[in-house]
Amino acid sequence: MKLYYHPVSTTSRPVWLFIAENGIDCELRVVDLLKGEHYQPEYVAINPNRLVPVLEDGDFRLTESSAILKYLAEKTGSSAYPKELRARAKVNEMMDWINTQVCREFAYGLVYPQIFPNHKRRSDEAHAGTIAWGKEKARGWLKVLDESLLGTKKKYLCGEQITIADYFGGPFVALGEILRCNYSAYPNVSRWLGRMKALKSWGKVHEVFHGFAASLKDKAFESV
Ligand SMILES: N[C@@H](CCC(=O)N[C@@H](CS)C(=O)NCC(=O)O)C(=O)O
């Protein structure tokens, strides 16, 4: 198998983390987003969305990080994607929640407009409005995650066992490190994220990401 990815990418890190943590035999192929490699015809032929990640398994190609995680977990018979109908439905529910609420309003609403030049809105007013909206919504979703989805008792997003929803959500929430987000107001989120960061592969997978965050340490950000 081959994974086209970028080490800073929020949607690549969950897949890479799952591969690394579970020792899955998969070639890792960096797509240099900073040099625009994803806009080159060779890559557009692989993924017309011009986005990472993409998984190749022989002549089978799959985009969408959530779908890739499910495929890899199913292919390797991982207990991180339970087979029991309702347990699996809860994992899918959580992953859809992350993919919409967190990805849309935290990543694309609050973080990306502040760090990627190609996310700059047409006017300063529109740009500030996007960030203010993202910030308010992100705060709301973090509160839901903290108080309702995790709560004080759960070890992981779907209960006592780690699932691919945790692999998916951990790197998304860690994205806030770029903005120096302070999650102390969300103690259950902090506790869960700490558990994810203790995974043996977390450090290696987040090394380049941390370097990127450090390169922005003097920039002022709107944060949560
Ligand atoms: N829904 C897609 C989103 C993928 C995505 O947003 N990828 C970003 C990196 S996090 C990307 O490739 N961005 C390149 C660009 O915006 O130019 C997934 O989950 O795989």
Ligand types: glutathione
CATH topology of the largest domain: Glutathione S-transferase Yfyf (Class Pi), Chain A, domain 2
* Shape verdict: globular
Number of contiguous helices: 9
Q: Major sheet: order of its strands?
A: 2-1-3-4
Low-confidence stretches: none
SS-based structural class? alpha+beta
Beta fraction:
5-15%
Largest sheet features:
4 strands, mixed
Helix content: 40-55%
Could you characterize what this model shows?
By secondary structure, the chain is an alpha+beta fold. The protein has two domains: 2-75, Glutaredoxin; 85-201, Up-down Bundle (Glutathione S-transferase Yfyf (Class Pi), Chain A, domain 2). It is 53% helix and 7% strand. The protein is built from nine helices and four strands, in the order E-H-E-H-E-E-H-H-H-H-H-H-H. It has helices at 13-21, 41-46, 65-75, 85-115, 124-150, 164-174, 187-197, 202-205, 207-215, and strands spanning 2-5, 27-30, 54-57, 60-63. Strands 2-1-3-4 form a four-stranded mixed sheet, with helices on one face. Helix 1 (13-21) runs parallel beside helix 3 (65-75), helix 1 (13-21) crosses helix 6 and helix 4 (85-115) runs antiparallel to helix 5. The longest helix is centred in the middle third of the chain and has 31 residues, at 85-115. It starts with a strand and ends in a 9-residue tail after the last helix. The mean pLDDT is 97. Glutathione binds at residues 9-11, 33, 38, 51-53, 64-66.
